[in-house]
Amino acid sequence: MKTENQKAWFFVLPVLLLVAFNALIPMMTVVNYSVQETFGDNVFFWEGLNWFQQILRSERFHAALGRQFMFTGLILIIEIPLGIAIALSMPRKGFWVPVCLVLMALPMLIPWNVVGAMWNIFTLPDIGLLGYFLNHVLGISYDMTQDPVAAWITIVTMDVWHWTSLVVLLSYAGLVSIPDAYYQAAKIDGASNWSVFRFIQFPKMKTVLTIAILLRFMDSFNIYTEPFVLTGGGPGNSTTLLSIDLVKIALGQFDLGPAAAMSLIYFAITLLVSWLFYTLMTKDDLN
Amino acid sequence: MAKITLSKLRHSYYPNPSQPSDYALKEIDLDWTDGGAYALLGPSGCGKSTLLNIISGLLVPSEGKILFDGQDVTELTPDKRNIAQVFQFPVIYDTMTVYDNLAFPLRNRGRDEEIVRERVMAIAEMLEVTDMLDHKAAGLSPDNKQKISMGRGLVREDVNVVMFDEPLTVIDPHLKWKLRSKLKELHQRVKATMIYVTHDQTEALTFADQVVVMQLGEIVQIGTPVELFERPAHTFVGHFIGSPGMNVMPCDLSDGQALFAGHPVALEGPVLGNANGTTEIGIRPEFVSLAESGLPATVTKVSDVGRHIVVECSVDGHKVSAVIEGDAPSKGDAVHLNFRQDQTRLYVDGWLATEPEGTS
After folding, report:
1. Shortest Cα distance from A112 to chain B (angstroms)?
2. Which residues from chain A sit within 8 angstroms of residue B197, using beta carbons?
3. Does A136 touch chain B (CB under 8 A)?
4. For chain A, which terminal residue's Cβ has fewer other Cβ atoms within 10 angstroms, N or C?
C-alpha cells in the first residue's frame, strides 16, 4: 500500500525559488528586452525579431564572434596538448607529487581580475618585468597597448598560464587511476612509449579530457574579466571578444534590446558548440 | 622455453638492508626444468609476487642471479627476456578488438601480418574465443578478459616462461575450475614452462607438477602435491596444505622415544641429529583413527563435511583432529585415538626430523 504524500513538494520549493530568482526570471527578462524597444520610463514598444536580425547581420558582431572563436580555438589548441604533456611528465609517486599538485593549482586560485591586473603590470614596457626585459634587454619592440599582435599574444599567454593547470589536474587524475599492471603488461608485450600512450594512457584520460575540453571551451568562450582588465578590448577593437562587446552595447551604449538579442544568440552558440563537442567526443563510447 | 635457475637470490625493498627481516626474499636457490608446470604457494606477503616480478624482470634483485638456459638475464628488461605474465586483474587494451589485443605482442615485435594472423587464430581456437575476435575487448566478461590476457602471453611461440600472478582472483567461483582446467590443458598443448603464483592450495595442487611453498621470504619445501601432503618438511606446510591442516602437538623426547601428554607415541623411524630445540609431533588428521585402546581423549566438536567427518578431540588440553568415515561419536564422548605409525613424524624447531624406518 503506497501512501500519497504531497508534503514532499515543500522540500523542493526552496530550490525552485532559488532557480527561479537566479536563472529563470533574469533569463526571461532578457527575452523580454530582446523583442522590445524602450526609451526609458518603463515604456516599451514591440519590435518582434528586429534586434535579432540586426545583430546577426551586423559586421561588428561577426568580427567579435570571429575573434572569440579564434581566441577559444587558440587556447584549446595550446592548453589541451600542453596539459596532457605536463600531466604525463609529472611524478606519480613520492615526495614531489603534492609539491607538483600545489604548484599546478596556484594559478587557478587567483581571482580573474587580479590575473588581469598582474599581467597588465607584468607586461608594461617601461616598468613591467616582462615588458622591460623584452624592450630594453632583448630589444624586441613589444607594447600591447599599441600592437594588436602583442595584445593577442598576451591574452592567449595569460589564459594558458591561468588555465592549463585545469587540464593538467584532470588528465593527471585519469593517469593515476591506471593500475601498475597495465604498464607492466605493456612492457612485457614490448609496447613502445607511443603505444603505451595511445592504447593505455589516452583511453583512460578520454573521459576526463572530454570534461576538460568542455570546461575550457565554455569558460574561454564566455571570458570577460581578464581581457577586459588587461587590454580593455584594444588596441582599437582587436581584442574585443564577444562578452566585452556585449557589455559595451548593453552598459556603454545602453542599447538594451540589441544587447538582449545578442546575449540570447551568444547563449545559443555556446550551447550548440558544447553539445557538438560532447556528442562528437562521446560518440565512440555508445557502441 | 627454457630452464630457469635462480642462484643465491635475495631481495630487499630497503636501500640498505642490514638485518634478515629487511629482506622480502631470503636466499633463494631453485632450478626449474624446461616445460614444467610449477606453482608458488604461500600466504599473502610471503614474497611470492616479489619472486615472480624478479623472474619477469619488473624488479631487479638486490643480490643473486637469474639464469635462463644458463644465460644470465638478471639485468635484462621484461621484453628482452621473452617472458609472458598474466596479472591478478585482467589487463586488456580497451580500445582494441580482441583480435588486435592478441596480435599486439607480435605486432610490437614487427612480425609479418600473415604470421600474426596464423598465431592469433591458433590461440583463439585454443582459448575458445574465435567467435569474439571482432568484438571490442572492453565489453567482455571478466573471465573472457582474463582469457585474452592469457592469450597475449601464449601468442608468442618463443616465450621462455609464462607466469600467472593469482590469475583467478576476480573470476566467479563456477568459472574458476573451468579456467583452471583450461590452463592445465593449455600447458599440455603449448609445453611452455609455466609458473603459477597463488595462495590457494587447490589451485596450486591441481595446476602444478611441482609446488614451491614459501613463507616469510623463504622456500619451505619443494615437492609434488603428494609429497607436500604426505611428508611436509615443515609444520608450516602441514598447516597450510590440507583441510583441516596437520595436527601438531608438543612432545618430549627421551632416549629416542616421543612422549605426548605423558603417553609414548611411536614415530615412523629414528630421529635424525641430536634434536635440540622445540620438539613436536606431526600427523595428518587423515591418519588419526578412533580405536578401542590408545591415547585417551575427549570429543570437543564433530563436523560433517560431506564425504567424511572431522572429529576434534582434546588430549590433555591439546587439540587433535581426526578424519573418519562411518559412525561419528558425539560431543563429550571419551574416545581413544590411534596414530598410524608410518605417518607420525617428529619436528624439531618446525623442521622434519625423522625418516622412515629402513631408509638409511
Report:
1. 39
2. none
3. no
4. N
Q: Kindly report the nearest CA distance between residue B221 and chain A, in angstroms.
A: 29
Q: Of B83, B91, B105, which has the smallest distance from its Cβ to A181's Cβ? A: B91
A47 in Cβ contact with A257 (< 8 Å): yes
The interface predicted TM-score (ipTM) is 0.73
A222's grid cell: 564566455
Alpha carbon separation from B294 to A154, B260, B262 (Å, rounded): 97, 12, 12
Residues of A in contact with B104 (CB under 8 A): 189, 191, 199
Cell 574416545 found at: B335
Q: Which residues contact B276 (CB under 8 A, 6 or more apart)?
A: B348
Contact B59, B214 (CB under 8 A): no
Chain A residues with beta carbon closer than 8 angstroms to that of B89: 179, 181
Is B50 in the A-facing interface, judged by CB distances under 8 Å? Answer: no
Tell me whether residues B79 and A192 touch, CB distance under 8 A: no
| Strands B83-86, B252-254: pairing kind | unpaired
Chain A nearest-CA distance from B23, in A, is 22
Residue in this structure with the C-alpha cell 596480435, named with its chain if needed: B103
Residues of B in contact with A182 (CB under 8 A): 91
Per-residue pLDDT of chain B (360 residues; tens, 9 = 90+): 578 888 887 888 887 777 777 778 787 888 888 888 888 888 887 888 888 888 888 888 888 888 888 888 888 888 788 888 888 888 889 888 889 988 998 888 888 888 888 889 888 888 888 888 888 888 888 888 888 888 888 888 778 888 888 888 888 888 887 888 888 888 888 778 888 898 888 888 888 888 988 888 888 888 888 888 888 888 988 888 888 889 888 888 877 788 888 888 888 888 887 777 888 888 998 898 888 888 888 888 888 888 888 898 888 888 888 888 878 888 888 888 888 888 888 888 888 888 887 655
- Chain A residues whose CB is inside 8 A of the B60 CB are none
